[in-house]
Amino acid sequence: MNFKQSGGNEADESLAALMTNASAVRAIAAAVQGTIGPKGLDTMLVDRFGEVIITNDGVTILDKMDVNHPAAKMVINIAKAQQHEVGDGTTTATIMAGALVNEGVGQVLRGVPVARVIEGIKLGISLAQTELTKRAKTFKEIKDPKLSNIAMVAGRENADIADLVVQAARLIGREKLLEANYKLSDIIVAEENANNEVFLGVIVDKERMSKEMPEQVEQATVLIIDDALEPEELDNEALGTEAGFRRFRELQDEFELNVRKIVDLGVKVVMTDRGVHARAEEILTDGQVMVVERVAANELRRVAEHVGARTIKRTGLRKELAELQKALGYAEKIYEDEKLEHVRIMGGRGKPAATILVGAATQEVVGERQRIAKDAASSVQAAVRGGYVAGGGAVEIAVARAVEKSRSSLKGMSAYGLDCVVSALKRPLAHIVENAGYNPLEKVENVVAAQTERKADTLGIDCETGEVSDMIKVGVIDPTLVKLHALKAAGEVATAILRIDTIIRKKDEGEQAGRPVGGDSPAGAPDY
Fold it and tell me: SS3 string of 84-146?
């Protein structure tokens, strides 16, 4: 997308910057708002080579969009941060950020100073987070059926995926899900023609190096080499001398002795980060050792943790057998699934590990099925960690009502910034019902009136019937942490964009000092 700043004299420069930034942010929000809710539609992304991605995932759409406006990129980066932190809620964060920026610009056009708007937005976001936390409910145990509801909502009503994720969460247990560095979404693998499955073990998306090697190994000792299993190299200049050639032969002989140590140790499976030399392949094949080369770093790390192995470099093979023995891991069973072209490691003696295998009918939908499963897994884990609230935009309406009540206690023009937050909080529900085919203005007001009249903060719109319903009772619930982080992210990017007073094109890093900058400026920024 390309955006151009509107022209204007020097006095209008600040307003021009606000307007162009607001236009860019509005375009970004518009790109994803059609995907939110149970009736949200997919987006087709096409590159210049004709490669197509069809997805409903907000962060994927934003990440793959051709965008060059700096304010638009700021919103995209916030969405990516939301994805990294909690794994879901990127569309909500983007929609609210867009609303905050556009409402803020609207207040500035009315004559409200930008500083007062920002002040009010910051206060409103803080109040909203407090009100949201008050409405959160926690899980007493991981067997609570509401966990399945959360997986269904985040998994876009794919019941098979939701079942897999909940099954895995219960298999792993609450304590593991609460670990700061553990991500349930990391254990998801999606493959064409696979059957949906959850099992204790790890998948490596590689085949064994040679069909002459064992296809299946039981009671397997495992060696993990975070390196290439190849001789050390000498440069061409050194090889051109007699001493260099002699050193080359010594290295070759040493390497062969080191590889034979692997067989002597009784190692059944070797996994490497990089390639394996032909001579090593020959020796290990003769020794009936299964070798899996060029394993992705994250997979190699998971295998090492699961089997209890200590990774070594190729130089580590110089150690004595007794020392090498300490680096070995163990697994009850390791085998290659020839149909799915991967290797499974089961029953490791290290840290317990589980894998969610998601099947897809065709290669074209593998990526989307994996994205859906990762969203569901992230939401389930976030809910276990921080509880849940009413979904479907209902809790945002309740929070908006509470924040609006605080307006009367504010003095000065910062109250107009607070209005921006109230308006932004109503946007998720508005787009959800609009995507379901209903009038957003009517339905939002219906929910506001119903919540006020019945004193029930969990009321929203059932997108199947269009009627006001209790979202928790109908199973539409969201993780509290996802909502909290979306609010925080939206507030941060909105205030950062509203603070931009002037857009200036900076000189290229490669330009020499004093060299004039020529040509049109990106995003309409003036040249200096």
Answer: HHHCCCHHHHHHHHHHHHHHHHHHHHCCCCHHHHHHHHHHHHHHHHHHHHHCCECCCCCCCCH
Alpha carbon separation from 306 to 200, 209, 298, 301, 481 (Å, rounded): 10, 21, 12, 9, 29
| Contact yes or no for 460/67 (Cβ under 8 A) | no
For 234, 240, 252, 299, the CA distances from 237, given in Å and listed in that order, are: 8, 5, 18, 38
Strand partners, 243: none
CA 99 to chain CA mean position, Å: 23
Alpha carbon separation from 474 to 24, 96, 471 (Å, rounded): 37, 25, 5
Backbone angles phi, psi at 144, to 5 degrees: -55, 125
Task: Please name the CATH architecture into which domain 12-137+389-498 falls.
Answer: Orthogonal Bundle (1.10)
Residue spans of the domains in the chain: they are: 12-137+389-498, 200-360
The class that CATH gives domain 200-360 is alpha beta
pLDDT band at 220 (very low <50, low <70, confident <90, very high): very high
**pLDDT per position as a tens digit, 228-262:** 999 877 666 666 677 766 777 888 888 999 999 99
Q: Dihedral angle at the C-alpha atoms of 181, 187, 190, 194, nearest 10 degrees?
A: 180
> Where is 76: in which H helix or E strand?
helix 70-86
Q: Please give the average per-residue pLDDT across 154-183, as a whole number.
A: 91
Q: Is 469 helix (H, G, I), strand (E, B) or coil?
A: strand
Q: Are strands 269-272 and 290-292 parallel, antiparallel or unpaired?
A: parallel
Rounded CA-CA distance 478/390 in Å is 6
Q: Could you tell me the two tokens for 517?
A: 């900058």
Return the structure tokens found at 280: 């090593």
